[in-house]
Amino acid sequence: MKYVIGLDIGTTSAKSVVFYENGRVAAEYEVAYSLSHPEVGYAEQDPLHIEQAALEAMNLSTQTLDREAILGVGISAAMHSMICMDKEGAPLSPSIIWADARSAKEASQMKEKHPDVYMRTGTPLHPMSPLSKLLWMKNNHYEPWKQADYFVSVKEFLLYRWFGEKVVDYSIAAATGLFHIHDHNWDEETLQLAGVSKNQLFTPVEPTYAMKGMDALTAEKAGLKRSTPFVIGGSDGPLANLGIGAIEPGETAITIGTSGAIRQFSNQPLLDEKQEVFSYSFTNDLWITGGPSNNGGLVLKWVQQLLLEEREIPMEELTEMAGRVEAGAGNLLFLPYLNGERAPFWKAEAKGSFIGLTPSHGKGQITRAAMEGVLFSILHIASALERLGNSHDKIFASGGFARSEVWVQMLADLFNKRIDIPVSHQSSAWGAAWVALYSLGKVEDLKSIKSSIPMNQHYEPNVENHKKYQSLFEVYQSVSNKLQPDFEKLHHM
């Protein structure tokens, strides 16, 4: 029996998922790490804690297995992290992650003065991007920025320390805002704006790039042989699409965990002057296009805390309560922008709000409206993708929300499409593992993963509910667009 590991370096934890070659999960282990907010708008993590969590997760996920039978490791990682690092691989700064908003001013100025950057890089001009972070560091004379030999993501940081290699996969590089997605190399014009040189960035490589000869002490901590090959993989977005089987035109992946996203693969970058979506390189002939939402499962967590009385209402009870309410929550809408919003507005200043509250609305309607609001935001991004030529013929869903029958049924009703759910919710890890199998010559191509994704169940849409949602979505789009200037005013107060 042979195994392959998908190592998924996420926002809140490192997950090591051990798969059989057919996609079934043999073992998995997750190790959490903390997120720090030293100032309002800051979001930082300790890179060394992330390294420790990744090594521990691999070690503990393989303890009961024959480690000699591990074919290799594929790596998935969250996008937009930025670490200032020296030549020895020591971090000079925290990992500043996608949720960090300190560079809002720099992002806004770039969008106004250099809109052409988006057309070259496919990365919306927003505080999430390492480009904005580097501009903030430059403008604020950030000490680690002045001392840094390299500027890297979390994945690059780990691989440099583990293998001594200075490489970055296309999709992590593309998410920096510094990468020319049409020729798959660093964009010289943007580098000049950011005040960094090519020598301070790592060499972009395809996701199949493999490394061997792990540092001996590191291999011991990971519980792996030094000769175990590590395949660089990609970012969590395209790998989630691959791991769920959304590969062909018209196949859409929707992932909702703490945040949310909708994505499709395309055979060319999909961009226009509206700058509503991202388009990132994955391989030399595949791009991933879509949009992220800042607000997914955390919205339901907020509702759970909001409704706290003598006891905490369990999530299952909360969603069951929402399921007893009619679609549309009594014409109550929720704009779910609790943490600002990325696609399609890219407004860090956006705020959450209920629209249409009356005395007849209770806990059930409030909960359902919040859950529907998260999905309306995904549908809003889907509309932008359709404008660029994408269709949503087949929809696959993954992430924590996929465990809720009520929430997934809402999604089917909103899109008026069947929703397919895989057995494993670890789609990014399986995508990374499959890229490793492909790189090592164990499978024919990337698309053949479709026959190795164990599916769990599917949900069919309710036509009457869909009609209701169509009417409400028109109002949702209208008010969400109209309120953006007012949200900015509130933010600056």
Overview features:
Gluconate kinase, FGGY family, FGGY_N, 493 residues, alpha+beta, ATPase_NBD, Nucleotidyltransferase, domain 5
Q: What do these coordinates show?
A:
The structure is a single chain. The protein has a domain at 3-238: 2-Layer Sandwich (Nucleotidyltransferase, domain 5). It has helices at 47-61, 104-113, 116-121, 130-139, 143-147, 154-163, 170-174, 188-194, 216-222, 236-244, 297-306, 315-323, 363-387, 405-415, 427-439, 463-482, 484-492, and strands at residues 3-9, 13-20, 25-32, 44-45, 70-77, 83-85, 95-96, 150-152, 167-169, 179-180, 185-186, 203-205, 210-211, 230-235, 251-256, 260-266, 278-283, 286-293, 333-335, 353-355, 394-398, 419-422, 455-459. It starts with a strand and ends with a helix. It is globular and about 65 Å long. A hairpin with a 3-residue loop joins strand 1 (3-9) and strand 2 (13-20). The chain is built from 17 helices and 23 strands. The chain has 493 residues and is α+β, with helices and mostly antiparallel strands. The strands form 7 sheets. The chain has a 7-stranded mixed sheet, sandwiched between helices. Strands 3-2-1-5-14-13 form a 6-stranded mixed sheet, with helices on both faces. Helix 13 packs across helix 14.
